[in-house]
Amino acid sequence: MKISLITPAKKHSKNGNRASALRWARFLRDRGHTVRIDVEYNGEPADLMIALHAWRSAGAINQYRGKYPAGPLIVALGGTDVNGFLKSDPDVTLKSMDAADALVCLHDLIGQALPERHRGKLHVIRQSAAPLPFPRKPAARHFDVCVVGHLREEKDPYRTALAARLAPAGSRLRVIHLGKAHTEDWAAEARTEMAANPRYIWKGEVPAWRVRREFAKTHVMVISSNQEGGANVVSEAVIAGVPVIASDIPGNVGLLGADYPGYYPVRDERALADLLTRAETDPAFLKSLVAHGRKLKAGFMPAKEAAGWNKVVDLVTPAG
Known about the structure:
- With 320 residues, this protein is an alpha/beta fold.
- 43% of the residues lie in helices and 17% in strands.
- It has 13 helices and 12 strands.
- Helix 2 crosses helix 4.
- The protein is elongated.
């Protein structure tokens, strides 16, 4: 089939939306489909549209529906769709969801936030990651904690830095933050935090190989977000064998499970500091995080994600 894959992330963007689109396109091409990735839809012939984000891709969805009123359509819901635009712009968001033959979400709890009429066409497909090409060797001099996420409000980006300020005087804790500043104000705040907090180092936007190198030497990864739709960085950390400490939002609990031992209350740096101190000083706790992650690995493998997409595509297309 000719598949139009719409993503709000432009061609050279390094954000998660672009990475997701490229990975999904690879799965679909491996199955023999022709996939065109665009930010907008300009009327190109298509046997199927897959639109990432109900709200951000609404224009493309409307254009496709105008040309192909009965054309198969899959809408992949973003975290901002579920956590933001359903409330701030429900008409546009719900119109896209209503138009879809199938909805794809990235974690188990999204259905709880959707209108009941949409739950029957909702499919969970977790994002996947490839294993590290080299063994992990955590740093010896420092207890490194990595944060991988852009500097913007949804990510609560400085929560781990604030927690590091509360670490005991003898702690070896050091926070390495990889991610692009959404605005110059966010960048200035990061530089100010570095100047005041010797435990915090912001590296800015880096390529994917640099993130994987950090995973090889870090002791723990923190995902501190206020909201998520199912962050791929969680998949990457789990597959790499990196212990994860996460805010207790649905987007994290829906990936890691309700029984995961590494949660802290969102926006609570004191609780996060306590967990980080425990991870540094209590080997049994750190091993429990690793053990839970190991049990989750099978759900984040590329073959599992590819099979999920193949199933949904078959479901909505005439040949399926």
